[in-house]
Amino acid sequence: MTDPIAPLTSKDIHNAKSTGNDDAIVAKMRSLIKALKIHNHAYYVLDNPRMEDSEYDQLRRSLLELEEQYPDLVQPDSPINQVGDMPLSAFTQVTHDIPMLSLGNVFDYDELHGFMRRVNDRLNDAQKNPEYEMELKLDGLAVSLKYAYGKFMQAVTRGDGQTGEDITQNAKTIHNLPKWLPTASDIELLEVRGEVLIPKAGFERLNRLTEEKGDKTFANPRNAAAGSLRQLDPCVADNRPLAFYAYSVNQGLSEHIKTQSAALEWLKFLEFEISTVEVVQNPREAQDYYEYMVETRNDLPFEIDGMVIKVNSLALQQQLGFLSREPRWATAYKFPAETVMTRLHAIEWQVGRTGAITPVGKLQPVKVGGVTVSNVTLHNFGEIQRLDVRAGDMVSVHRAGDVIPKVTRVWHEQRPADSEPVQLPSTCPVCDSPVVLPEDEALARCTGGLFCPAQQQEALIHFVSRRAMDIDGLGASWLVSFFEHGLVKTVADIYQLHKHQEELITLEKLGEKSVQNILSAIEASKHTTLASFIYALGIRGVGETTAQNLAQQFGDLDSLMAADIDKLLQTPDVGAITAELAYKFFRAPHNIEVITALREAGVHWKKVEQVASEGLPLDGQTWVITGALDSMARDEAKAKLQALGAKVSGSISAKTTALLAGGKAGSKMAKAEKLGVKVVGEEEFLVLVGE
Ligand code: IVH
Fold first, then answer.
1. Ligand 1 pocket test: which of 100, 135, 137, 267 has the largest number of ligand atoms within 8 Å of its C-beta?
2. Which of 78, 137, 145, 313 is a Cys-bridge partner for 306, taking CB atoms 3.0 to 4.6 Å apart?
């Protein structure tokens, strides 16, 4: 048998494999222990994690499962029952009066049920199905505070659970940590425990400053908080936006207080900051509250990684006690990980409608934020260089709310030795035409134009989309299949599909009814608006807003097609690049052919009512709308502004008169501030439009 304490060598692994089951289990345990120890040290001592928390949880779970299955093989140095890591030596060591323990985890409703069942198993009939109390699981550092006769005396970190570090001087710099509790002046010794953390906003500020100074930024708020608390110079801690949230009274609680929720209320009365307190009666209510917090966690000012659910009665807590290092009366109900690690096994290049070549990362499928993700956009070649990512790398993938998943970190230290830097393809992966990367642009482009089948296909899909010709019923997959069978090549061919009814029915086993539906949808789409038609053409740089502005400006298609660059430039939203692209578009013989064919097939629109803006209150003004408005859809707001004579543009420039900003306004807001463009809130806007 191998020495269980010595580090695992490849020989051990080899022997384990060849000598039988127990050794193989031990070898597996040892390698998990090794990985966990490396992580613990990096996390707790160096404040510089080497893997995502979710990854750590998984390793820990694997080890725990093995230990439960093979209790005889549990290794004496297993970190499972150890909390944190050895304390650092620079601070005075303090032994906790009562050990600071950790919490078990549950990850779904079944496991939550399991936890509550285990609680019930230890209670008598009258006590079964107790009330529970739920709190946020704050993602910071556990700290114990002591007050003597109301005066703040000492703060100690959790350390290894038995002994921590005296961080009193640094804790004094935490602005919301009460230094004096007038209403507790008769309590000889009060011990309050809670979490020290850095709120999200403070974290971003801190990292910005750290970056400006040229120092290494913190991986997350938790590490920033840990690093700040461990500063030997309290002046440094004083400049860090630390905050303290209390979650328990461990000594000095009045006997009149019988529940955890009441204890927290009392802490609040003493002027401690506490997190939310929710009392629930059964697993269903607990699950509801948990799901509510999953939805709203991003709105909180600080990061949380789950909920803590505690038996509310302090007497029952006492009765239930502890199992090794975890309370039987509480557990952490973890959130689905929003950041997980997985392998990026390939980088593929996709060609868009306008020929833009964008890299797509192919992932080992993984659950993030509750859904399985197997592709991730890498935006452009510059992003690949910025991240320094290669095929084969382990990456962190983040997905919060309904946000598109993205790669937030590349674990370079885990890079396979044989990986190679990513090259921008020199030719289009679809049509083999040369690829160009214009000097001041982020996106590489295929030069094949409509010769490139990928661009042809994307152009078709764009043409039928809802905001373009809105050919409801002709989905992208049918369209691509018609394209592949040579039934449609250009968008004009869509209006000739009725000549191929028989073929369509046999070709796609579509059935007569579905073919009829598609054909009537195509027929119905012939009646459109000029703006939708211009947008549907897919001219580079002409999005929906620009298309509407062009329709307004020119009133009919012929004038637009005949316009020179100067005329085009008079349209709001149209800059030099778009003007040139549009000008060229209407001069390409192929495009003129397609447009003519479309009109001949019967595509038409009602006359554009050009708003005479002269004399209207907002005449001559250009507005931009951003964010979500409470009282109306953005399209409505736009129509109201236009009715008052304003032009509405999609992007901010120095020419913009005002930015109408709804909730969650993002980069446009920042740009407006930078350019000194006036920002108008929803209320002011409503007054302006007379509502
Ligand atoms: S109660 C006996 N309540 O989670 C354990 N802990 O994994 C008592 N934590 O060390 C802990 N928020 O750092 C409790 N509302 C909360 C918490 C919380 C965060 C942390 C704490 C603890 C760790 C356990």
1. 137
2. 137
C-alpha distance from residue 305 to each of 107, 137, 202, 332 (Å): 11, 6, 18, 9
Distance of CA 143 from the midpoint of ligand 1 (Å): 10
Pocket residues: Cβ below 6 A from ligand 1: 101-103, 135, 137-138, 142, 158, 195, 247-248, 275, 308, 327, 332
Ligand 1 centre distance from Cα of residue 159 (Å): 14
State the distance from the centre of ligand 1 to the C-alpha of 104, rounded, in angstroms: 10
CATH architecture of 339-424+436-444: Beta Barrel (2.40)
Structure tokens at 122: 């230890």
Token code pair at residue 59: 């390793």
Domain 93-334, CATH homologous superfamily name and number? DNA ligase/mRNA capping enzyme (3.30.470.30)
Q: Ligand 1 pocket test: which of 141, 247, 325 has the largest number of ligand atoms within 8 Å of its C-beta?
A: 247
Instruction: Report pLDDT for 32.
Output: 92
Using DSSP, state whether 649 is helix, strand or coil: strand
Active site residues: 137
634: which DSSP letter? H
* Token output for 355: 């020929």
* Separation of CA 134 and ligand 1 centre (Å): 12
Superfamily of domain 530-605, CATH level 4: 5' to 3' exonuclease, C-terminal subdomain (1.10.150.20)
The pTM is what?
0.60
Where do you find CATH 2.40.50.140 in the chain?
A: 339-424+436-444
CATH number of 622-690: 3.40.50.10190
pLDDT digits (tens, 9 = 90+) for 605-648: 988 887 777 788 888 888 998 888 888 888 788 878 888 888 88
- Closest ligand 1 atom, residue 137 Cα: 12
Task: Please enumerate in sequence order all residues whose Cβ is within 8 A of that of 292, keeping only pairs 6 or more positions apart, or say none.
Answer: none
pLDDT of 204 higher than 50: yes
C-alpha separations of 367 from 96, 224, 634 in Å = 39, 27, 34
Architecture of domain 10-81: Orthogonal Bundle (1.10)
Task: Please determine, for residue 336, whether its predicted confidence score (pLDDT) is greater than 80.
Answer: yes
How many of the other CB atoms lie within 10 Å of CB of 647?
26
Mean pLDDT of the chain: 88
